[in-house]
């Protein structure tokens, strides 16, 4: 029974909205009609969930907490329960308390015991990470049960963890590592962004499989393994379409991690390594031409061209189906074509004017650039930008995943030679002849 059922609308004197629950099961006690078992079950679920939410808020306020974690079979894999508890906590706390839900919480005791025992094996030398290829809070581990055909969630559960032979630590330059969130969009909450990215990864899947086969031309079973990889990753994408919360938070980064774990599971550690090496060689030959073209521009025109190169490089990747087709035909033309196809300003996030004003001031002391790739997008997009920063007297540092370190090492090492100056003249010591 809602407030509007009693007062005919909202009750402004007490600040009660018309849709607020006034009494659980109120209509069943006052209305002379039969209610279905489904209605009764949902009312009971809402009553218990709202009660949990109110009690939680009282405890959170008592102990000055802003976040509460939930776990247990009553909640596991049940979105209606999660939604009701979240709504209840938001209402009673006026948005001051956040409800959080654990994934794989059925394993927490086992994981705790495991890590406790692992402390005897010098845990400072390594870290543990979840393997998305072999884990899911919702997908059945039984090959006979397709995830979409299951009668209820929570029946099967699986978790796999990988031991990394090195310790992962927070970036020391972060001001506050505990508050740093690397992902800007939660795809469980943004339906449009979720549809876009899931479709993007689906469309690129066939190309990734073909590239995986091409990366191991001497392996007779490469095609079979690539097909199994493609099917497994496609199944995971379909699970996420129906159950976006299947792996906890859903981000572009987690989609990439899941794909990488699936590739590793079927022994394709880096399908693009040989392609990237070839691409590096092509880009290096074109690099000097690109630099000479930039140096003919006026200062502001040059800064805009450098930023366009960054944006074009950001989308110029083998992972995109359309880009892959361009690269197969003409890498040089492809990069120039990518710049022409950039959206006109204003961009989605456009701080270019502020950036130009900042460049008119003193040089930055240091620039830390994260690169998760190599090839044309790095050499023709990032390196000209780095050269400009170096010319201003800014120290530049690179950070790259280990699988790209070898490919990038030869190229990045030459950056130290890019910036010897005499009378404001750049002297290139033929550093690009590698």
Key terms:
434 residues; mainly alpha; Nucleotidyltransferase, domain 5; AF1104-like; 3 domains; two-stranded parallel ribbon; two-stranded antiparallel sheet; globular; disordered C terminus
Folded structure, characterized:
This protein has 434 residues and is mainly alpha-helical. The protein has three domains: 3-105, ATPase, nucleotide binding domain (Nucleotidyltransferase, domain 5, 2-Layer Sandwich), CATH 3.30.420.40; 106-265, AF1104-like (Up-down Bundle); 273-427, no CATH class. It contains 15 helices and eight strands. A two-stranded parallel ribbon has the order 1-2. The longest helix has 26 residues, at 37-62. It is globular.
What is the H level of CATH, i.e. the homologous superfamily of the largest domain? Answer: AF1104-like
Arrangement of strands in the largest sheet: 1-2
User: Helix and strand string, N-terminal first?
Assistant: HHHEHEHEEHHHHHHHHEHEHEE
User: What is the CATH third-level topology name of the largest domain?
Assistant: AF1104-like
Class from secondary-structure proportions: mainly alpha
* Large-scale geometry: globular
Helix content: 40-55%
In DSSP terms (H or I, runs of 4 or more residues), the helix count works out at: 15
Q: What percent strand?
A: 5-15%
Distance between the terminal alpha carbons, to the nearest Å? Answer: 77 Å
CATH class descriptor name of the largest domain: Mainly Alpha
Q: What is the CATH architecture descriptor of the largest domain?
A: Up-down Bundle
- Low-pLDDT stretches: 138-156, 403-434
Arithmetic mean pLDDT:
78
Domain count: 3
User: How does the major sheet shape up?
Assistant: 2 strands, parallel
Rg (C-alpha, Å): 28 Å
Number of strands: 8
């Amino acid at each position: 029974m809602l407030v509007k059922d009693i007062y005919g609308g909202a009750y402004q004197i007490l600040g009660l909205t018309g849709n607020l629950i006034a009494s659980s099961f109120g209509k069943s006690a006052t209305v002379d009609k039969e209610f279905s078992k489904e209605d009764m079950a949902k009312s009971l679920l809402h009553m218990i969930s709202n009660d949990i939410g109110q009690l939680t808020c009282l405890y959170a306020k008592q102990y000055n907490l802003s976040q509460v974690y939930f776990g247990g079979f009553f909640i596991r894999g049940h979105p209606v329960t999660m939604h009701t508890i979240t709504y209840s906590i938001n209402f009673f706390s006026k948005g001051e308390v956040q409800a959080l839900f654990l994934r794989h919480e059925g394993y927490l005791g086992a994981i705790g015991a495991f890590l406790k025992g692992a402390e005897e094996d010098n845990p400072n030398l390594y870290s543990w990470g979840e393997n998305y290829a072999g884990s899911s809070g919702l997908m059945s581990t039984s090959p006979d049960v397709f995830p979409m055909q299951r009668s209820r969630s929570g029946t099967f559960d699986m978790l796999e963890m990988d031991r990394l032979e090195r310790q992962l630590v927070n970036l020391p330059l972060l001001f506050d590592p505990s508050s740093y969130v690397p992902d800007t969009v939660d795809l469980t909450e943004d339906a449009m962004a979720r549809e876009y990215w899931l479709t993007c990864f689906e469309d690129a899947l066939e190309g990734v499989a073909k590239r995986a086969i091409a990366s191991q031309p001497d392996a007779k079973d490469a095609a079979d393994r690539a097909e199994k990889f493609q099917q497994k990753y496609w199944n995971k994408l379909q699970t996420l379409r129906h159950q976006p919360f299947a792996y906890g938070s859903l981000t572009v980064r987690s989609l990439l991690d899941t794909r990488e774990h699936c590739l590793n599971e079927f022994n394709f550690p880096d399908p693009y390594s040989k392609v990237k090496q070839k691409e590096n060689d092509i880009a290096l030959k074109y690099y000097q031409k690109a630099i000479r073209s930039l140096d003919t521009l006026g200062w502001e025109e040059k800064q805009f061209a450098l930023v366009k190169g960054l944006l074009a490089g950001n989308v110029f990747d083998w992972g995109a189906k359309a880009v892959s087709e361009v690269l197969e035909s003409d890498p040089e033309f492809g990069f120039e074509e990518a710049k022409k196809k950039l959206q006109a300003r204003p961009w989605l996030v456009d701080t270019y004017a502020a950036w130009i004003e900042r460049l008119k001031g003193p040089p930055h002391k240091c620039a830390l650039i994260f690169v998760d790739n190599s090839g044309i997008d790095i050499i023709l997009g990032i390196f000209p930008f780095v050269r400009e920063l170096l010319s201003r007297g800014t120290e530049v540092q690179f950070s790259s995943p280990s699988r790209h370190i070898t490919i990038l090492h030869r190229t990045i090492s030459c950056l130290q030679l890019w910036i010897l100056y005499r009378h404001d003249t750049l002297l290139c010591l033929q550093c690009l002849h590698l």
